[in-house]
């Protein structure tokens, strides 16, 4: 059998050569990139067989690309996508498939499993006659196009507070209109502060993640942080203590009272039992301190929670402190950095639907 004649790209100018090199470095479309490499290799004098071996494509493909470039130039590098063959599964059936995927197998009398896999969903669709034939890949594409994705189950804890709306509006009013006779302080506990490796994120070389130990003990016990966010300045005050009883909470309130003498303090806090202790309430009543409780299971209304999230992300995640002194120092360093850049806190959840609630949404949508 005679050997097929060699095929090479036509002579390339210097400018064409530079343009091909740019395409091979910057092209995001894999088809365009592959075609440009084929043309560039041919322009360098490599035979079709050598290009085939390196690129893992057929000889006919290499020859077609070279002939097309010789005829049409750089326009031959751009893939001309066609619409493909007509859909064999209509839009109505696709909507039906997405609807079934969002149901539970139990809804169809199937008790052997609690969730669909692609294979189980495909078998169910075929058994019901929803489709005559369908592959798992086609099913995956239909679900993706329909906005249906594989997601983890989440939970929702509904508030049982009958005065939810009134309490929420009280807190929001203090945020929106700070009283002229004092200042609003958001107080809460953060912790427990264990000595443990904490997962986090960092800039690293690809495939070289930071490694942390997987095992640890609690021989050194845990600590707890009491913190207060002053909305007028954005500053955070804190204390780290081995326990979080009403004694520690009351002592912290006394410290805040000393810091702002002559001003009434409006303390936003949750319904943790030490916050509601008789000793705490009695002291507050006699020292110009008003405790404003958020509704039950609504800690997200306490503005300090967002500051805790930032503290956890920037000061603790990705660390593996071996002593409480080391960990407490890291927390203190972050809070000093935060306070040096703090600004007054305004505009809490201004675009949130909670602003229009007239009754409490007791379950997740």
Molecular structure report:
The chain has 365 residues and is of the alpha/beta class. The chain folds into three domains: 14-77; 91-145, no CATH class; 164-205 and 216-356, Nucleotidyltransferase, domain 5 (2-Layer Sandwich). The protein contains twelve helices and five strands. The protein has helices at 14-26, 30-43, 48-55, 59-72, 91-101, 118-128, 136-145, 164-176, 246-259, 278-285, 304-316, 324-340, and strands at residues 182-193, 223-230, 236-241, 264-269, 289-293. A five-stranded mixed beta sheet has the order 3-2-1-4-5, sandwiched between helices. Helix 11 (304-316) crosses helix 12 (324-340). The longest helix has 17 residues, at 324-340. The model has no long low-confidence stretch (mean pLDDT 90).
CATH class of the largest domain: Alpha Beta
Question: Going across the major beta sheet, what is the strand order?
Answer: 3-2-1-4-5
Whole-number count of domains: 3
Tell me the CATH superfamily of the largest domain.
Ribonuclease H-like superfamily/Ribonuclease H
Biggest sheet overview: 5 strands, mixed
Distance between the termini: 71 Å
Please provide a brief summary of the model.
By secondary structure, the protein is of the alpha/beta class.
């Amino acid at each position: 059998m005679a050997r097929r004649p060699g095929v090479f790209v036509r002579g390339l100018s210097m400018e064409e050569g530079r343009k091909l090199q740019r395409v091979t470095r910057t092209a995001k479309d894999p088809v365009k990139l592959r075609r440009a490499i084929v043309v560039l290799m041919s322009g360098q004098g490599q035979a079709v067989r050598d290009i085939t071996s390196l690129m893992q494509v057929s000889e006919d493909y290499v020859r077609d690309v070279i002939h097309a470039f010789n005829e049409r130039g750089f326009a031959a590098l751009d893939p001309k996508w066609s619409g493909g063959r007509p859909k064999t599964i209509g839009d109505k059936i696709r909507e039906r498939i997405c609807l079934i995927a969002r149901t539970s197998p139990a809804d169809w009398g199937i008790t052997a499993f609690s969730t669909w896999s692609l294979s189980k969903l495909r078998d169910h669709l075929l058994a019901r006659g929803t489709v005559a034939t369908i592959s798992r890949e086609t099913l995956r594409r239909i679900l993706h196009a329909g906005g249906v994705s594989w997601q983890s189950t989440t939970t929702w804890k509904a508030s049982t507070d009958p005065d939810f709306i009134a309490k929420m509006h009280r807190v929001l009013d203090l945020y929106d209109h700070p009283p002229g006779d004092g200042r609003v302080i958001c107080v809460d506990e953060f912790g427990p502060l264990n000595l443990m490796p904490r997962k986090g994120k960092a800039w690293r070389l690809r495939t070289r993640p930071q490694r942390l130990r997987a095992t640890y003990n609690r021989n050194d016990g845990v600590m707890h942080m009491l913190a207060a966010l002053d909305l007028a300045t954005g500053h955070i005050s804190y204390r780290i203590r081995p326990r979080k009883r009403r004694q520690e909470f009351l002592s912290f309130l006394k410290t805040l009272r000393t810091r702002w003498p002559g001003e009434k303090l409006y303390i936003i806090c949750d319904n943790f039992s030490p916050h509601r202790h008789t000793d705490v309430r009695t002291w507050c009543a006699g020292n110009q301190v008003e405790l404003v409780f958020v509704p039950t299971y609504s800690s997200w209304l306490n503005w300090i929670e967002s500051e805790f999230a930032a503290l956890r992300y920037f000061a603790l995640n990705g660390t593996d402190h071996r002593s409480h002194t080391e960990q407490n120092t890291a927390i203190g360093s972050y809070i000093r950095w935060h306070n040096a850049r703090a600004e007054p806190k305004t505009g809490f959840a201004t675009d949130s639907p909670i602003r229009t609630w007239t009754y409490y949404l007791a379950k997740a949508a």
